[in-house]
Specification:
The complex is a heterodimer of chains A (199) and B (137). Chain A contains ten helices and no strands. Chain A is mainly α and 199 residues long. The radius of gyration of chain A is 20 Å and the shape is elongated. Classes of the chains: A mainly alpha (199), B mainly alpha (137).
């Protein structure tokens, strides 16, 4: 038998309920909020910083800042949008201050996790470096839109809402970001084999 | 990884770069759990502070509530008492003596019994009662 809607609501407390409980120091409620929104928060941070470890730091700082200022989250139903704005601002601040980890650390971690062959590792590492360099040449907004849409799978409307832009503007940024990446990658990899990644 | 809105994009809209998503592979559940655990560990002091703050407020309310209820009850009783007193004062008018009562009083009846006309002091005494101070001629 399909569970009724009220039963489902009872099993899944709303963000507003969890915020109210977390304001009183309920660690279980705050943990539920963290687990519910950690991926979206990480996606936003990664779109700004383009580094997993840096994004982790921004997410942690963002959640802690949100907890400290939880009383100013009004209305509590808008917790998700409020949190993502905090995390994004934190990531932008880190980027401005240059508080990012080196590319070498990320490559070491990625190589260790996937354990490819030495040849694959060399090719992938080379492509990764080229991609990261190319991403680094994009404007902040182009990079955010590209990462959120093409890496995280966000919809145009959600990106537009987060960044405070029109959907049409988001599409234009995505268009320019993809074109620029393709141009840069083809420029540094004119041979057909390395260009396969662009298909 | 693209949404349905991409169908509306023009034909010359460049496709996503496939290697981009490989650069940022989906994380394992354990990695998300570890990140969440790190956040919770760092959040514990603030959560503890909030619990203590909430407990302090509750303690104050526990003491303040009976006191405030008692004060409110006293105020209510005082207001009721004032209202009753003022109502009683307003509803009991000063009884004005009738003409017959004035005439039947001792000084008036004596004056009426005399043949001589009453002086001004005699009349004042009759009309004002004991509060009037008689002036000797």
């Amino acid at each position: 038998m399909k569970p009724s809607a009220p039963a489902a609501e009872a099993a899944e407390p709303s963000d507003a309920d969890l915020v109210a409980r977390a304001q009183g120091g309920d660690s279980g409620a705050f943990e539920t909020l963290v687990k519910r929104h950690i991926r979206a928060a990480h996606a936003v941070a990664l779109a700004v910083l383009a580094e997993q470890a840096d994004a982790d730091d921004a997410v942690q700082d963002g959640f802690l800042s949100a907890l400290r200022h939880l009383d100013s989250c009004a209305p509590a139903e808008k917790f998700r949008a409020w949190l993502l704005t905090i995390v994004r601002n934190r990531a932008l601040d880190m980027r401005r201050r240059g508080r990012v980890r080196s590319v070498d650390v990320l490559e070491e971690e990625t190589a260790h996790t996937n354990e490819p062959s030495p040849l694959e590792m060399a090719e992938r590492s080379e492509l990764n470096v080229r991609l990261e360099i190319a991403i680094g040449t994009l404007t902040d907004t182009q990079r955010e839109v590209l990462m959120m849409h093409d890496v995280q799978g966000w919809k145009h409307a959600d990106i537009a809402h987060l960044l405070g832009l029109a959907e049409s503007t988001v599409r234009v940024h995505l268009l320019h970001a993809r074109r620029r990446l393709r141009t840069l990658l083809l420029a540094v990899a004119p041979d057909g084999r390395q260009g396969e990644a662009l298909r | 990884m693209t949404d349905e809105n991409d169908r509306d994009d023009p034909l010359d809209f460049p496709a996503p770069i496939s290697e981009l998503s490989k650069l940022y592979p989906e994380r394992a559940k354990g990695e998300w759990d570890a990140l969440a655990a790190g956040i919770m560990k760092a959040a514990m002091p603030e959560l503890e502070r909030r619990r203590e703050e909430r407990g302090l407020v509750r303690s104050i309310l526990r003491v303040a509530r009976p006191v405030s209820v008692a004060a409110a009850a006293l105020l209510l009783l005082g207001a009721l008492g004032l209202a009753v007193t003022s109502d009683a004062a307003a509803t009991v008018p000063a009884a004005a003596p009738s003409f017959a009562e004035v005439v039947d009083r001792e000084p008036a009846s004596t004056l009426l019994a005399n043949d001589s006309p009453p002086s001004a002091n005699d009349l004042a005494s009759v009309l004002e009662g004991d509060s009037f101070t008689q002036v000797q001629p």
